[in-house]
Amino acid sequence: MSAVKTTPSKRGKLVNLRNFPGFTSTSWLVMFFLYIPLVYVVFYSFNSSRIGSIWKSFSIKWYGKVLENTDIQRALKNSLQVGFAATLLSTVLAVMAALGLLRMQRAGKAVAMALIGAPLIIAEIVLAVGTLGLFIAVGIPLGKVGLIVAHTAFCIPFALLPIRARLSQLDMAPFEAASDLGANERQILRRITLPLLSPAIVAGALLAFAISIDDFITSFFVAGPGSTTLPVYIFGMIRSTVTPEVNAISTLLLLFSGIVLLGSYLIQRKRR
Amino acid sequence: MTAVTTPRKKPIQRARPGQSSPKLAYLPIIFLAFAIGVPLLIIVIYSFLEKPSQGTGVKWVFTTENYKALFVQEKLDGTTAFDTRYIKVLWTSFYYSLITTVVTLVFSIPAAMWIATREARKRTLLVALVTLPFWISILIRTYGIRQIIADEGPIGKFLGMFDISWSILYSPSATILGLIYVFLPFMILPIYASAERFDFRLAEAAYDLGAKRMTVVRRIILPSIRPGIISGVALVFIPALGSFLQSDMLGGGKTNMVANVIANNFGQARNWPFGSALAVLLIILTLVFVLIIQGIAQRRGDKVELV
C-alpha cells in the first residue's frame, strides 16, 4: 500500500532517467578527469620557466626548441615514413583480406581470423619481442624495413574493422545489376566494390595511420639505433630529463591528432 | 586474369561483393602468418631453449628450466626453494587490471547512461569527447596524468597550501591511477553503445507497474546494457593485463607488471628464454580470460564479439 502511495511523488524523478541522481555529477567528473591532464600539458607548454611546474610567463620558446631539434626532426621523419608505408600496405592487404574472406572456406577463415585477431588480444609486448626474435632469426635488419613490416602487421586488423563493417551493410542491387549487364569480376571490383567501400577504406587507412604513428612498444624493440620513431624519442626524453620541451611536442602531437580526426570527420561527411 | 578474357567460361553466378576470389585473401594471410604467427611461434620455441653464456639471444639446446625458474629458485649451494617473485608479478598484473576494470566500470555506467539520455546534438559532442582520447598517443596521455599527480603538480601544490604532503608518483597507486585514466574511454564507449539502443520506455513501464528506482536499475537497465558492460570489461581488463607504459612511467620500477619483466628480460637482463617463458604464460592467461569473458557472454545469450 505504501508503495502505491509514494508513487506520484517519486515518479517524476525516475520517468525521466535524464535526471538520475549522481549521473550528471559523475559524468562531469569523468570528463574533467579525461581532459585535465591534456589541458595541463598544453597550458604548461607555453610556460617560459625551465622548471615545468612553476608558471613564470607566456612564451613559445619551447616550440622553437622543438622545431630546431634535429633529433626530433629525424624521429618525426622516420615516424612519417614508416606510418605512410605501413598505412598503404596494411590498407591494401586489409581490402584484399576483407574481400577474399567473404568466400573463403570455414577452416581457412578460422585461421585468418585468428591471425587478424591476435594483435588485438595478445599483449603488444609479446608480439614486440617475438618480432624482434623473428627479425634476428631471418636476418631482417632492425630499422625502417623491420618497422614497416611490424607496423603493417598490427595495423591490418584496425584497417580491416571499418571495411568489414561496411561490406556487411552493402546493398546488393548494384552488384546484381552489374552482373546482369555482363560485367566481369574485375570490372565489378573496380567499378562497384571499391567505390562503394571507399569511405570505409579511408576510415581504415586513417585508423591504421593513427595506430602506426602512436606505436611505442613494438617500435622500441625493432627500431634499432638509427631509426628511432617519434614516440620512442619522446619516451627517452621523458625518462632522461623532464624538459618543458616534452610539453610542447606533446601539444603539437595533440594538435596533429585533432587535425587527423577532423579531417576524417569531414571526409566521411562529404562522402555521405 | 582468365576472368577478363573468358568471362563466360563459368556460368554467371549472382554477383555479390564477394564475387572476388578467395585467393585475394591469400597474400594478407601469408603476410600475417609471417609477421604475427611466426613471432608467436618463436616465443614458444625460445621459451624451451637455453640462454647463451654470453650476449643476447638463445642457445639451441632444449630445456624446461625457464618454466621451472618461474616458480623455483636455485640457491648458490645448489638447493632449490619455492620462488614467489614471478607469481607476485603475475598477481600484481591481475590485481591492478581487476581494480582498473572495477573502477572504470563504476564510473562508466553512470557516464554512459547520462550521455545516452542527452539530446542528439549534445550527445554527438559528448561521444566525440570520449572518442578523442582513442586518437591521442597513450604515451602522451600517460605523461599527462604523470604531470598531474607529480609531487609538485597541481594536486600537490593545492594540498601543499594546507600543509598536506602529496607523494604518490612512483607507487602502485600511481600505476593503477594511470591505468584507470588510459582505459576509461574503452569502458564508456561500449556501454554507451548499448545504452543508446535501450528503450527508455521499458524503465517507465517498470516504474508505472510499481518498481522502485533501484529495482528498475537492477532488473531493467543493467540487463539491457550488459552486452556493453561485457565488451567494456574485455576491452579494459585484457589490455591492462599486458600494459607496459603505466607501470614503467608511473610505478617507477617499484611496481613491475608482467610486461615490464618481459621487456627487461629482452633488454638489460638479457635472458630471452626466460622472458619468452613469461610471455607464453601471459598469452595463456590472456586466452583464459578471453574464454571466461566469452563464456559469460554466451551463457547470458549476449552477442559479444571480442574481435
Explain the overall architecture.
By secondary structure, chain A is mainly α. Chain A has helices spanning 2-15, 23-44, 61-68, 70-102, 106-121, 124-138, 144-169, 173-180, 185-214, 217-222, 230-240, 245-271. The longest helix of chain A is centred in the N-terminal third of the chain and has 33 residues, at 70-102. The model of chain A is unreliable at 1-15 (pLDDT under 50). By secondary structure, chain B is mainly α. Chain B has a domain at 85-268: MetI-like (MetI-like fold), CATH 1.10.3720. Chain B contains 14 helices and four strands. Chain B starts with a helix and ends in an 8-residue tail after the last helix. Residues 1-15 of chain B have low confidence and may be disordered.
User: SSE order of chain A, as H and E?
Assistant: HHHHHHHHHHHH
- Per CATH, the class of the domain at 85-268 in chain B reads Mainly Alpha
Q: What is the CATH architecture assignment of the domain at 85-268 in chain B? A: Orthogonal Bundle
Q: Are there runs of chain A of 5+ residues with pLDDT below 50, and where?
A: 1-15
Class based on secondary structure composition and strand pairing of chain B: mainly alpha
Count the strands of chain B? 4
What is the averaged pLDDT score of chain A? 86
CATH homologous superfamily label of the domain at 85-268 in chain B: MetI-like
Distance between the termini of chain B: 34 Å
Order of helices and strands of chain B: HHEEHEEHHHHHHHHHHH
- Total number of beta strands of chain A: 0
> Would you identify the CATH H-level superfamily of the largest domain in chain A?
MetI-like
| Adjacency order of strands in the biggest sheet of chain B | 1-2
Largest interface: A-B, 108 and 102 residues
Looking at the structure, the CATH topology of the largest domain in chain A is MetI-like fold
Whole-number mean pLDDT of chain B: 86
- Strand proportion of chain A, as a percent range, falls in under 5%
CATH architecture of the largest domain in chain A: Orthogonal Bundle
Taking the sheet with the most strands of chain A, its summary is: none
Please state the oligomeric state of the protein chains shown.
heterodimer
